[in-house]
């Protein structure tokens, strides 16, 4: 079992990377929740959380944590991505970081294009949901259409952009801490040659071409996550 702490907005007990700070990380309730998660051997997932929230989690928990679908901020400088100091701390705790495949998290110029489209279509989205806030079917459909609009006309990337982030995280935290966090079920676009799991053989070849050994590639493709989760197999 795992639990993410926030999505794109703050919760009543933790700050999100996508929102203005409200609690300066975790508030008192948030720290109690982290303690309870530890007690019942759940995995803490800090993807989407603000830097200060992640720092507070690391201070409170005694367990390894994961960022299930996040990228490296050094390569794409946006709040949603993880800075090197937190990559290092997560790795030192024997944690796990799964690299997200969304081009807007892989490349800063594409993120800027996404943000421009978000502003462009914000009123369109509000018009779609106005008066239908209690209808989940309409809300879900409007959100799906909105997500597709924010990637209209964006530049393209290939799987090497994903490998760049894997390489960087491995250099900072060690190859044992990094793997895949595709977010296939949550992102509106992907690298052109990494559209679903049928493309993984090409990703494996790409990792090999970058110098990763077979054992390291097996770890990146799944065994690192498996080994991380064994910490909670009690």
From TrEMBL:
Gene3D superfamilies: Metal-dependent hydrolases. PANTHER family: DIPEPTIDASE, MICROSOMAL DIPEPTIDASE. It comes from marine sediment metagenome. One of its GO terms (biological process) is proteolysis. This is Membrane dipeptidase. It holds the Pfam family Peptidase_M19. One of its GO terms (molecular function) is metallodipeptidase activity.
């Amino acid at each position: 079992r795992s639990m993410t702490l926030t999505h794109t907005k703050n919760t009543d007990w933790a700050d999100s990377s996508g929102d203005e700070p409200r609690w300066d990380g975790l508030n008192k309730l948030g720290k109690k929740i982290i303690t309870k998660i530890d007690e019942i051997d759940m995995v803490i997932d800090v993807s989407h959380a603000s830097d200060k929230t992640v720092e507070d989690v690391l201070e409170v928990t005694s367990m390894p944590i994961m960022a299930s679908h996040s990228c490296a901020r050094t390569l794409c400088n946006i709040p949603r991505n993880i800075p090197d100091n937190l990559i290092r701390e997560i790795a030192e705790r024997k944690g796990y970081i799964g690299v997200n495949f969304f081009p807007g998290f892989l490349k800063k110029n594409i993120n800027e294009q996404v943000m421009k489209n978000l502003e462009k279509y914000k009123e369109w989205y509000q018009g779609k949901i106005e008066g239908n806030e209690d209808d989940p079917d309409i809300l879900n459909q409007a959100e799906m259409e909105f997500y597709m609009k924010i990637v209209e006309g964006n530049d393209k990337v290939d799987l090497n952009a994903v490998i760049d982030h894997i390489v960087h995280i491995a250099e900072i935290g060690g190859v044992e801490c990094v793997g895949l966090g595709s977010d296939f079920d949550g992102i509106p676009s992907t690298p052109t040659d990494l559209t679903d799991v049928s493309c993984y053989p090409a990703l494996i070849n790409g990792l090999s071409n970058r110098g990763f050994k077979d054992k390291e590639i097996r770890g990146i493709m799944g065994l690192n996550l498996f080994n991380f989760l064994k910490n909670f197999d009690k």
